[in-house]
């Protein structure tokens, strides 16, 4: 069958023929494909390195910024620690002053040669002389007793009330005595 041009091939035969029918055209197609793959691979690799370097630069800037912020926070923390220590010392002094003026409930500061009336006027405590090394001499309702720190003395204030006295601490200038009273237990 001949075509219009008279070459003896049909249009259909040329449409069915592969694009790379010759060996040289196949080889050229393979080389072009390999070159395209190589260009894409190298380009992708270079682009990946570019992105990685850009991320590293941002990371380095963030590290420098965070380091400077960390040092700033350390300085602030040191300043705050100094302020806290100063405030704690002031609080301790203020608390000691307050305790000297207004001791806690049932706690009394007794200075040498002074008497304190406790338990609603039922017990009188006096410090006889200055405190010694081992204890203090207390005058409790007219009776003198030498008492070390921490010892509890039970005193019958009257027929229905028993009081317990405890020397909490003492120094050269005072004795701190805790007095608590309760009704006597029925027998």
| Average pLDDT number | 80
In total, the number of domains comes to 2
Strand percentage lies at 25-35%
Given the structure, what is the number of helices? 2
Euclidean distance between termini CA atoms: 142 Å
Helix content: 40-55%
Overall radius of gyration: 51 Å
Please summarize the sheet with the most strands. Answer: 4 strands, antiparallel
What is the total tally of β strands? Answer: 8
* Class derived from helix and strand content: alpha+beta
Spatial sequence of strands, sheet with the most strands: 1-8-7-6
Describe the structure.
Helix content is 45%, strand content 26%. It is an alpha+beta fold and 187 residues long. It has two domains: 1-102; 107-183. The strands form two sheets. A four-stranded antiparallel beta sheet has the order 1-8-7-6, with no helix packed on it. Strands 2-3-4-5 form a four-stranded antiparallel beta sheet, with no helix packed on it. The radius of gyration is 51 Å and the shape is rod-shaped. The model has no long low-confidence stretch (mean pLDDT 80).
């Amino acid at each position: 069958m001949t075509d219009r041009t008279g070459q003896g091939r049909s249009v259909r035969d040329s449409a069915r023929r592969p694009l790379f029918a010759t060996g040289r055209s196949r080889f050229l197609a393979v080389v072009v494909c390999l070159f395209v793959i190589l260009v894409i691979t190298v380009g992708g690799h270079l682009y990946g390195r570019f992105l990685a370097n850009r991320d590293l630069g941002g990371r380095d800037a963030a590290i420098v910024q965070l380091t400077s912020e960390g040092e700033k926070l350390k300085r602030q923390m040191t300043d705050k620690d100094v302020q806290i220590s100063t405030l704690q010392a002031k609080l301790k002094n203020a608390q000691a002053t307050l305790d000297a003026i207004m001791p806690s409930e049932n706690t009394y500061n007794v200075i040498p040669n002074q008497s304190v009336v406790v338990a609603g006027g039922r017990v009188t405590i006096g410090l006889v002389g200055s405190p010694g090394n081992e204890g203090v001499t207390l005058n409790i309702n007219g009776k003198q007793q030498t008492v070390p720190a921490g010892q509890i003395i039970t005193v019958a204030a009257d027929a229905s009330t028993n009081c317990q006295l405890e020397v909490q601490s003492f120094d050269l200038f005072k004795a701190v005595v805790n007095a608590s009273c309760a009704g006597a237990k029925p027998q």
